[in-house]
Amino acid sequence: MYAFEYARPASLAETEKLLADCPDAKLLAGGQSLIPALKLRLNRVPLLIDLGGLSGMNRIERRDNSLAIGAMATHAEVGGSDVVKSAIPALALLAEGIGDPQVRNRGTIGGSLAHNDPAADYPAAALALGATLKTNRRDIAADNHFSGLFAGFADDEILIEVLFPIPQRFAYAKFPNPASRFALVGAAVAQTGAGVRVVATGASANGVFRVTELEAALSSSFRTEGLRNIQIDSSNLASDIHGDAEYRAHLVGVMTKRAVDNCLG
User: Fold this and answer.
1) CA geometry: angle 71, 131, 35, nearest 5 deg
2) Which residues, in sequence order, are CB contacts of 127 under 8 Å at separation 6+?
3) Residues 50, 7: Cα–Cα separation, whole Å
4) Distance between alpha carbon 23 and the CA centroid of its chain, in Å?
5) What are the structural domains of the chain?
6) Looking at CB atoms within 10 Å, which of 39, 177, 189, 262 has the fewest?
């Protein structure tokens, strides 16, 4: 690990000033991705700004027809929240399936969405549900945020909270890597008044993406029967030691069917 300065601001204004004074600084949320990168010297920062001192950044609350989750809410807090369980139960289940207890008690929803790992769980849910990512500078629709590998925010942006519209139905199913618990392939299915969305994670090195052919089939009939004959194009999917592109394409279909079954109870 390279040497760096450390700051733990007590307010958003102080955090913004630190970023303005040191544009190359990095924000620290749960540290589950950044700290290993620093330890392995894959990243070098002059200043690490710990967001743990900002009050209220882990707030979880229902707002009319939306669920608002503060960016510093840990996976364990999301998974254990009665508000989340009442509004979007499958989102709580998703959080409970991330990593192990240590990761869930340190990692945050904001850190996951900002880092945007191509095999992470929250990006699939955010894109499927049409979430809005609210920063100190702007509101960003999930459709505009997840645009590529590790796509994130501008250097002066701080993710404050995530706003999830409450759907008619939502479920997430994943085939986890047995070591990391990241999704080898995961599928999020959401049915809202605007239609059906199916989002895959873990299948592409470029990150999460909508599976339009599955969306069309489920929009016609929200049943797994209509998915049986759909072949997912594997040409743009990832191949590695854990599974080739054809296997991942198959898993996209399988995980989508499981998510639909979960939606239907």
Assistant:
1) 35
2) 142, 143, 146, 188, 197, 199, 208, 210
3) 6
4) 25
5) 1-55 (3.30.43.10), 169-264 (3.30.390.50)
6) 39
Q: What is the mean pLDDT of residues 204-221?
A: 95
Locate all alpha helices (DSSP H) within 60-173, ordered by sequence: 75-80, 82-87, 89-96, 101-106, 109-115, 122-129, 142-145
**What is the reported pLDDT for 150?**
62
CA angle 70, 71, 74 (to 5 degrees): 90
Residues 6+ apart with CB under 8 A from 12: 54, 136, 158, 160
Bridge partners (DSSP) of residue 74 are: 108
How confident is the model at residue 105, as a pLDDT? 97
pTM of the model as a whole: 0.94
Kindly state the average pLDDT of the residues 7-15: 97
DSSP state of 167: P
Residue 64 zone, left/alpha/beta (φ > 0; ψ -120 to 50; rest): left
Structure tokens at 186: 């995961």
Percent of the chain with pLDDT over 70: 98
Contact between 72 and 51 under an 8 Å Cβ cutoff? The reply is yes
